[in-house]
Amino acid sequence: MLYDPTEHRIRSFVTRAGRLSIAQARALEELGPKFLVEYAKAPLDFEQAFGRRAPVILEIGFGMGDTTSHIAKGMPEKDFIGVEVHTPGVGSLLKQIGEQDLTNLRLIQHDAVEVLNQMIPPASLAGVHVFFPDPWHKARHNKRRLLQPPFVKLLAGRLAPGGYLHCATDWEDYAVQMLEVLGAEPLLQNTAEGYAPQPAYRPLTKFENRGIKLGHGVWDLVFTKK
Ligand SMILES: C[S@@+](CC[C@H](N)C(=O)[O-])C[C@H]1O[C@@H](n2cnc3c(N)ncnc32)[C@H](O)[C@@H]1O
User: Fold this and answer.
1) Nearest-CA neighbor of 168 among 103, 216, 213?
2) Euclidean distance between CA atoms 50 and 59, whole angstroms
3) What angle do CA 49, 52, 56 make, to 5 degrees?
4) Protein residue with least CA distance to atom 23, ligand 1
5) Best residue for ligand 1 mutational test, from 37, 39, 58, 86 (most atoms within 8 Å of Cβ)
6) Is residue 65 lining ligand 1, measured as CB closer than 6 Å?
7) Which of 1, 137, 213, 226 is at a distance of 20 to 30 A from 32, taking alpha carbons?
8) CA-closest candidate to residue 67, choices 208, 180, 165
9) How many A from CA of 28 to the centre of ligand 1?
10) Residue 154: half-sphere exposure toward Cβ, Cα within 13 Å
């Protein structure tokens, strides 16, 4: 077989990234240049990134991206930015972008806190999704949880007035913490009395379905920017 430099690059990338599949590596190589936005310490021009002006929704920690692609496909009139640090997840969502021909999705592979601070202009987002953030369930690790007061203040500042923040978790004590922290942020207002009914646009994940069958709970929280 003739030497193929692209194939060679993909295979060596798979070796370096460990659990990355060949299909994910191929998606990174082929679709990355178009759909991955490089992290920069400068505000991102949404109109330039998407080639149009539309409401922008940011998702933090999209994992393998199944929920992200489902939502983006169902809302073609909106644009979505997914932020994730995990390379196989980024490859997986790029693969879905290619398979489903999605044009309203861009990805940033970087820490979400830095992305929000550096790239997302104040009052610019129509919505933020944080689905099943790492629970850090051991008491001594609780402080590593993403949804703490300073981060929620940062998120609220990036939302446009009337924009929403939707969080979901399957850890009850994290749900309690979210309700407390989001409820204490003066820029946010709860859309429900406490937890919100699951919005129809958020699909149930396989993992969630399994949990529900075992009697585990899931809590959604939807707050809007005042
Ligand atoms: C428990 S997983 C949930 C993934 C997905 N939202 C879902 O519902 O299946 C949490 C994800 O958040 C990502 N993550 C954690 N901290 C992050 C950060 N600071 N910036 C970007 N992604 C982060 C992790 O890599 C992981 O993929």
Assistant:
1) 216
2) 16
3) 70
4) 61
5) 86
6) no
7) 1
8) 208
9) 18
10) 15
- Could you identify the atom of ligand 1 that is nearest to the CA of residue 113? 19
Query: What is the 76 CA–ligand 1 centroid distance (Å)?
Result: 24
Q: Give me ligand 1 centre to Cα 40, in Å.
A: 20
Per-residue pLDDT of the chain (226 residues; tens, 9 = 90+): 566 777 776 676 666 666 889 999 999 999 999 999 999 999 999 999 999 999 999 999 999 999 999 999 999 999 999 999 999 999 999 999 999 999 999 999 999 999 999 999 999 999 999 999 998 988 888 889 999 999 999 999 999 999 999 999 999 999 999 999 999 999 999 999 999 999 999 999 877 888 888 888 999 999 999 9
45 Cβ contact list (under 8 Å, min separation 6)? none
> Which residue's alpha carbon is at the smallest distance from atom 14 of ligand 1?
61
| The two structure tokens encoding residue 146 | 């993403």
CA dihedral 47, 52, 56, 57 (to 10 degrees): -120
Q: Which domains does the chain have, with CATH numbers?
A: 35-225 (3.40.50.150)
Active site (catalytic) residues: 134
Binding-site positions: 59, 84, 111, 134, 138, 170, 205-208
Instruction: Match 């330039």 to its residue by tokens.
Output: 48
* Residue 177 amino acid letter: Q
Tokens linked to 179:
């309700």
**Whole-angstrom Cα Rg for the chain:** 18
